[in-house]
Automatic annotation (TrEMBL):
This is Ig-like domain-containing protein. Coiled coil: none annotated. It holds the Pfam family Ig_2. Keywords: Disulfide bond, Glycoprotein, Immunoglobulin domain, Signal. It comes from Mugilogobius chulae. It comes from the Eukaryota. Transmembrane segments: none annotated. SMART domains: IG, IGc2. Residues 165-246 form the Ig-like domain.
Length: 256
């Protein structure tokens, strides 16, 4: 509804015309009302000059002009109408050149689409995450709104980025001290996706043992020292080394 707020003039109106751009909509004069063909059945002109426009479409967006003719001259006023399409069918898609997301190396872009008749003019249609972290899985949703409606996409979850190794820890059983000739079990753990590969070191020298754990059977005094393990992730290509765990081998004579 386009409502007028003109005070009644001292002299009566000669004619009232509403137009849209260069197209006339409806005119009213002493001879009666005339609605132009394109607007037949869609408009009503009220006695106070207000205009009702029905069944509005996107093409009705624009400037409307009210012209009132009277003996003292014309009165012209304009107003703007914005017609919006209801927002629906919001969809989020994930775009990445990487077949597998790698923590700190990959980037990912989330883009949204919406029903064809809604035009996105503002920024924000894309969300880019640079140097993806393992905690960036989501879920992500996108809300699209305009002055007449809003719609939210279904949640999207990113695949977990390969990551690690982190928090590499060596555990020994028994810990610290053991008797010569006894057995010592060593294990190494790391936060890693996929599972890490392990190498073992004694006082910085590479040992032949591999794997998350190994057992030193019949340990000898010359095997005393600082044991550490190094974890490797073949996806992130990262290495991480544990803090050393000290093993002191005591001779049997010192333990009796």
């Amino acid at each position: 509804m386009f409502t007028t707020s003109l005070a009644p003039p001292h002299t009566p109106f000669t004619a009232v015309t509403w137009s849209f751009g260069t197209k006339n909509i409806i005119s009213s004069s002493a001879d009666g009302d005339f609605t132009f063909p394109e607007y037949e059945g869609r408009v009503t002109l009220f006695s106070n000059g207000s205009l009702e426009l029905r069944n509005v479409a996107l093409s009705d967006t624009g400037q409307y002009i009210l012209t009132i003719l009277q003996a003292t001259g014309p009165i012209v006023s304009t107003t703007e109408l914005n017609v919006y399409e209801p927002v629906s069918n919001v969809t989020v898609t994930v775009n990445s050149s990487d077949l597998e997301l790698v923590e700190f190396n990959s980037s990912v872009t989330l883009s949204f689409t919406v029903n064809d008749r809604v035009n996105i003019t503002d920024r924000g249609a894309n969300l880019t995450i640079d140097t993806v972290w393992r905690y960036d899985q989501g879920p992500f949703t996108c809300e699209v709104s305009n002055p007449v409606s809003s719609s939210t996409s279904d949640p999207v979850v990113l695949p977990s980025a390969v990551n690690g190794p982190d928090d590499v820890i060596v555990r020994t059983s028994p810990s610290d001290y053991c008797e010569e000739g006894s057995d010592v079990l060593m294990s190494c753990s790391a936060d890693s996706r996929p599972a890490a590969q392990f190498k073992w070191f004694l006082n910085g020298e590479l040992l032949s043992f591999t794997g998350a754990q190994f057992e030193l059977k019949n340990i000898q005094m010359n095997q005393s020292g600082n044991y550490s393990c190094q974890a490797f992730n073949n996806k992130t290509l990262r290495y991480s080394t544990s803090q050393p765990a000290s093993i002191f081998v005591l001779s049997k004579s010192n333990t009796t």
